[in-house]
From TrEMBL:
Residues 90-161 form the YdbS-like PH domain. Keywords: Membrane, Transmembrane, Transmembrane helix. It comes from Candidatus Parvarchaeum acidiphilum ARMAN-4. The keyword Ligase does not apply. This is YdbS-like PH domain-containing protein. The chain crosses the membrane at residues 21-41, 61-84.
Length: 181
């Protein structure tokens, strides 16, 4: 932070606003459905780890060998998606100061994106049905220069307040929060 800089608003995004989290949940639900369908319609199906172990030539491991292969692998992939999205969100921080917007992210190497108020042309909020149910939203910062990509801040808990803080920073004093706060 600069010498005379003060933090106006700082926010860590919610994991519920991340696509990877919902992909992981979807894979876990899919694995449960596959397991249930296979258990009902094929009660003695033999696509398990023991079949894989015998194909590879590994001695059967009793506890793991009885698990159904497809649904277990889908659950493991789903859990990996959830853990990765949780780690990514843990290391993201959106900060609005009295002179700039700072976006920091990265697990091993920190990346810092700084947006100066003079470079921002518009700030909008995008809330879909799922976001509305989870009380989340996306804040989209549009740069002044044509051809530069928009900056999307996902998983913001109070997106209108965050948008208002950015608009006050860029000098748009006509902003009124639709939620009344």
């Amino acid at each position: 932070m600069l010498a005379n800089e003060k933090t106006v608003k700082s926010e860590k995004p919610s994991v519920l606003g991340q696509k990877e989290f919902w992909r992981g949940i979807g894979l876990i639900i899919l694995s449960i459905v596959i397991f249930a369908v296979l258990s009902i319609f094929l009660p003695n199906y033999d696509i398990s780890f023991s079949l894989l172990f015998s194909y590879i030539g590994i001695k059967n491991i009793p506890l793991i060998g009885a698990l159904p292969l497809i649904s277990t692998l889908l659950e493991i992939i789903g859990i990996i998606y959830i853990v990765v999205s949780e780690l990514e969100v843990y290391f993201i921080e959106y900060t609005i100061t009295n002179s700039r917007v700072i976006i920091q992210n990265g697990i091993i190497a920190k990346k810092t994106k700084i947006v100066l108020p003079s470079k921002i042309s518009d700030v909008s909020v995008d809330i879909n049905i799922l976001d509305r149910m989870l009380k989340l939203g996306k804040v989209i910062i549009r740069p002044e220069e044509q051809g530069r990509p928009n900056i999307t801040l996902r998983g913001i808990r109070d997106p209108y307040s965050f948008q208002g803080s950015v608009l006050k920073l860029i000098g748009d004093v006509t902003y009124k929060n639709p939620n009344g706060s």
